[in-house]
Design a protein that fits this description.
With about 525 residues, this protein is of the alpha/beta class. Strands 1, 2, 3, 4, 5, 6, 19, 20 and 23 form a 9-stranded mixed sheet that branches. It has a 5-stranded parallel sheet with strand order 8-17-9-10-13. β9, α5 (about 190-195) and β10 form a beta-alpha-beta unit. α6 (about 220-230) packs antiparallel against α7 (about 235-260). The relative contact order is 0.14.
């Protein structure tokens, strides 16, 4: 018989998003009970999963870290340091006791009558099934599948005699010293793996179908160092540097759209400077992307370690397409064979929509792609649910903080007005508005987005039915959102089972309304 657990809020995922939202909930809704359901055996999400050589952040920790917990290290941090930061957060903030590990959510069902989400959860450590019930559901499971990577099905893979490893599933204690390695891909993961492996491998070749934009700086922050030398409190230092980093990121993003060619030229010159005049690598061939800057993420190279490995001929870059795998490596379309003892497929991941959980609303399956997003946080026709989908150009966590503030504000507003249900609902004037994809494929189009874009919700062409992916706009717009503008439909709170039974009889005739109208 499955155990039953009833709470105010269920958070799915104990990665950066889940931990951050738990803090916001504790801080702003201190009376609410909550549990974090985590499918893995520990917290950390991406940083628990990714154990490949050199695993590190590709965003600075002043913006990628939490706004409530200062980051005290170098801007770009290794996996172990990020996990230490998260460990200190869950312990010092009292979050750890609210995490249930090895709890994999299989289904989630909303019932208007009881005004509750019911989750069926498989305990992978005991093989038991448990049931969790809550008024609010906060999806913090991230946006890619941790248990399934993306690897193209190349011809001849079965003939290859060496090892093939995807970074997402790096074998523990795998020894690659002295091996000839080919890393397929040129994104942030490849930019990390190549210099790390080049320290002990015989040679590492980064094989790319097309180049990526790279930029390099020393892995230090001069402003943070100056403030610390002046004994400025860490909380102040963190916030000041955070704002400084955001201003720099805004400048780069603005230039990417207003003067893309000038920015492109600067990035290319930066690569030439890093490689130096004596390096034989053809920058125009291997570091000149087909797209303009910021149509995909810029890959940051801290301390220029990737370029150092290339300069010192411990690593090399090949730009070509794969014809097939052969017994001793990879045959390219050009006819060249890249010999390899190990092939690392840094080829990306697959989108995970709402944790791949089976959702129902009042007994009807939810097709998430048919919903319209409410500011990229909630979704039309889906009650009492928020999903943390972060920024793709700015650090993911900057959006987590905005959503954390918004959703806790909404919960408190519902308590104050006596509402038990909040459902984003298109108004008459919103009907028939132009629909566009959840993410603009012209503005950001890496492979993992394009492969899964059809699974994501739609967005409209008017507020609040769009998702701008623009921190600088949302940082002002989200805190100022009107919870009573008619786009959020409320229903009075049901307190007990008898009331729920009566409400169930009337549910088919019920029309949600604003909290103000509900009070009157």
């Amino acid at each position: 018989m499955s155990a039953l657990h009833e709470l105010d809020v269920l958070i799915v995922g104990a990665g950066l998003s889940g931990i951050g939202c738990a803090y916001h909930l504790q801080d702003k809704c201190p009376g609410k009970s909550y549990t974090i359901l985590e499918s893995k055996e520990s917290f950390g999400g991406t940083w628990h999963t990714h154990r490949y050589p050199g695993a590190r952040s590709d965003s600075d920790l002043f913006t990628y870290g939490f706004n409530f917990r200062p980051w005290k290290g170098h801007p770009i941090a290794e996996r172990s340091l990020i996990l230490d930061y998260l460990k200190d957060t869950v312990d010092e903030c009292g979050i750890r006791d609210n995490i249930r590990f090895n709890h994999c959510v299989r289904s989630a069902s909303w019932d208007d009558a009881t005004q509750r989400w019911t989750l069926t959860v498989h305990r992978t450590d005991t093989d038991e099934v448990e049931t969790f019930v809550a008024r609010y559901l906060w999806m913090c499971q991230g946006y890619y599948r941790h248990n399934q990577s993306y690897t193209p099905d190349w011809d001849g893979m079965e003939t290859y005699k060496g090892d093939v490893v995807h970074p997402q599933f790096w074998p523990e204690d795998y020894d690659y010293s002295g091996k000839k390695v080919v890393v397929i891909g040129s994104g942030a993961t490849a930019a990390t793996v190549v210099p790390a492996m080049a320290k002990t491998a015989a040679h590492v070749t980064m094989l790319q179908r097309s180049p990526t934009y790279f930029f390099s700086e020393d892995n230090r922050n001069e402003l943070a160092e100056r403030l610390r030398a002046l004994d400025v409190p860490e909380e102040w230092t963190h916030e000041i540097v955070r704002r400084d980093m955001l201003a720099f990121q805004k400048e780069v993003a603005t230039r990417a759209f207003e003067e893309p060619q000038a920015l492109r030229d600067e990035l290319m010159e930066g690569v030439r400077a890093e490689l130096g005049p004596d390096c034989s690598v053809d920058v125009d061939t291997h570091f000149n992307p087909r797209y303009m800057p910021w149509r995909q993420r810029l890959a940051f190279v801290p301390d220029g370690d990737l370029f150092a490995a290339i300069r010192e001929e411990r690593a090399s870059v090949v730009t070509d397409e794969i014809d097939r795998f052969v017994e001793n490596g990879i045959l390219l379309k050009s006819g060249e064979v890249l010999e390899a003892d190990l092939i690392v497929t840094a080829t990306g991941f697959n989108l995970c929509i709402l944790g791949d959980i089976d959702f129902e609303i009042n007994g009807q399956p939810l097709d998430f792609s048919q919903t319209t997003t409410y500011m990229g946080m909630m979704y039309s026709g889906v009650p009492n649910l928020a999903w943390v989908f972060g920024y793709l150009r700015t650090s993911w966590t900057m959006r987590l903080d905005l959503i954390g503030d918004f959703f806790t504000k909404l919960i408190n507003h519902m308590d104050e007005t006596g509402a038990g249900v909040c459902t984003p609902t298109l108004r008459p004037e919103d009907q028939g508005m132009k629909e566009t994809p959840f993410l603009d494929p012209e503005g950001f189009n890496p492979g993992y987005i394009m492969r899964g874009l059809h699974l994501l919700p739609k967005q409209g062409d008017k507020a609040p039915w769009f998702f701008k992916q623009d921190y600088y706009w949302e940082a002002e717009a989200i805190p100022a959102m009107d919870l009573e503008d008619g786009t959020l439909a409320y229903a009075p709170k049901v307190e007990n089972q008898n009331e729920a039974d009566g409400h169930r009889d009337q549910a088919s005739a019920f029309v949600p309304t604003s909290a103000a109208a509900m009070r009157s």
